[in-house]
Specification:
The chain has about 140 residues and is α/β, with parallel strands linked by helices. It has a single domain, classed as 2-Layer Sandwich (Transcription Regulator spoIIAA), CATH 3.30.750. About 40% of the residues lie in helices and about 30% in strands. It has helices at about 40-55, 75-90, 105-115, 125-135; strands spanning about 5-10, 15-20, 25-35, 60-65, 95, 120-125. The protein has a six-stranded mixed sheet. Helix 1 runs parallel beside helix 2 (about 75-90).
Amino acid sequence: MPVTVHEFKNEFGKVYCKMLHLVNNQAIVLEWYGYSTKNQVEAVTNWIDQWCIQHPCITLVNDCTYIQSVWFDTIEWFTRIWVQKMIRHGLQRFVHIAKQDSFGDRIGVQLQKILADDVQFYKFSLREEAINWLETN
């Protein structure tokens, strides 16, 4: 059962990312909402980097179902810096969720190209499919 660990809000008090912990799966789920700036993505990932020191994480579920930005200015930093730190913390699998032909799908295509040699990468178009897969693998 997922436990909400933290919500990240923008300057207007609107949640742009929610982090859930799937304890039994040693996984975290990042749910992205609306438009996320590079600074916001960095704030989330830096917080998670510190949190994962105490809470092992082998799987990251990146849920971009409701995202409305493409992260073009963020993907390079996210993959080359942050994901590499997470790998050192024990990250082995990266699960990306996005509706086909969406902003999130564009992000997933770029992430998969860059991360394919670093982690096991999986893409799903529905969150339920991804969580079901996670619970059986």
